[in-house]
Amino acid sequence: MAELNSTPNANRLHIGIFGRTNSGKSSLINLLTGQNTSIVSEVAGTTTDPVYKAMELSPLGACVLIDTPGIEDNSSLGAQRLEKTRLAMEKTDVAILVFAANFQGSFEEEYKLLENFQKKKVPVLCLINSFGKILGEDKLGETISDRLHGDRNALLVADCSEAGGAANRSSIIGALSKLMPEDYDEEFITGSLVKEDDLVLLVMPQDIQAPKRRLILPQVQTIRELLDRKCTVVSTTTDKLELTLSRLKEAPQLIITDSQAFRFVYEHKPTESRLTSFSVLFAAYKGDLKYYIEGAHFMDRLNEQSKVLIAECCTHAPLTEDIGRVKLPRLLRQRFGAGLQVKVVSGTDFPANPAEYDLIIQCGGCMFNRRYVLSRIDKARVASVPMTNYGVAIAHLTGILDKISLGRQAR
Question: 282-403 belongs to which CATH class?
Fold first, then answer.
């Protein structure tokens, strides 16, 4: 269960910086941030783990800059470092691929990265780091240009060192702004379910799993959005739902509940009030709602021999009645048999090939950006494994999936 302050970066634009050791990646992130964010050294492999720096970059807005280890790391820990780089790639909304102009060898590793990003439709800025030198006819630039496809990629020559100064920084940020995904930051958590002046009731049980004196992140983000959309927001706990409804002069246009209380709220809500859950909203906001619904219907084929993976994004210490480790497994075994196998992973632990599982149930995904959650869905699709999420799964298991409001089917 994610706390308010545990992941301030989840909804920021993630800009990943990739390239070989000593190509100028760390110098670039320092140039962009105007700070000594990463250590700059001539010693190969100075950056051993991805460095994440959250900041505001005008006109890009709220960003996370990711400085990654060199892609050709052959050290004793190279494999582990490259795995961290692969994970950073899965989180990257816009990539900067740095080419060192003074490098005399082959750029095949860079070209493989470029091909991978383009295949996944991730915008790429190919940046030739000139190291302050004047480049003439640049065959490297011509080769890179020949490999760029589509209008969401660009090539730029700039000096990434501190000597590059404001002019180069401005050029790089200007090039990045042209690569921004067209629909970035335009989606609402609540989709089309609300409009200005709507009354929205939030049902938020503060049980043992809730962080002390804090709200969990999906609740905080939803409240903020509803206020921005000029809605009237009322909050209550499950045990006070009926009392709260009796005090309202009119029925709420929408009720958003914790998925664990889905059935109770459905049975006690006004007929005219639409109902959804925080997790169902995040199924569309962070994932692929259509695919999740298909996965929920697949649950009916499970049996005692089935194997289910429950994937959480946060790494909280589980307590009594934890939804992922206790409640969902119990619901599944009650429906499909006590022998059903359930494995729980958390954080960024997710199998590269999940083919051994019959179903994957993903949490809401509030801890990570949408790009990363979609990378998990892609792995499930490639392995032909159905996938759903907490809210959609619980709605299906309690028999109300066709009775709740989804807002949108997919993006």
Answer: alpha beta
Length of the chain: 411
CB 401 within 8 A of CB 296: yes
Whether residue 44 is predicted with pLDDT greater than 60 in this model: the reply is no
Cα dihedral sign for 390, 346, 6, 78?
Answer: negative
Q: What CATH architecture is 199-273?
A: 3-Layer(aba) Sandwich (3.40)
At residue 21's C-alpha, the angle toward residues 350 and 157, to 5°, is 105
Taking only the tens place, the pLDDT of each residue in 302-326 is 999 999 999 988 766 666 667 888 8
Residue 140 has pLDDT above 80, yes or no: yes
Output the six-digit token pair for 234. Answer: 């009322």
Residue 21 and residue 44 in contact, taking contact as beta carbons nearer than 8 Å: yes
Whether omega for the bond prior to residue 50 falls within 30 degrees of 0, making it cis, is no
Contact by Cβ (8 Å): 371, 397: no
Alpha helix (H) residue ranges in 121-216: 139-147, 165-177
Which phi and psi (to 5°) does residue 184 adopt? Answer: -65, 135
CA 176 to CA 173: how far, in whole Å?
5
The pLDDT tens digits of the residues spanning 10-24 come to 788 999 999 998 898
Tokens of 152: 């969401």
Domain boundaries, the chain: 13-177, 199-273, 282-403
Domain 13-177, architecture per CATH = 3-Layer(aba) Sandwich (3.40)
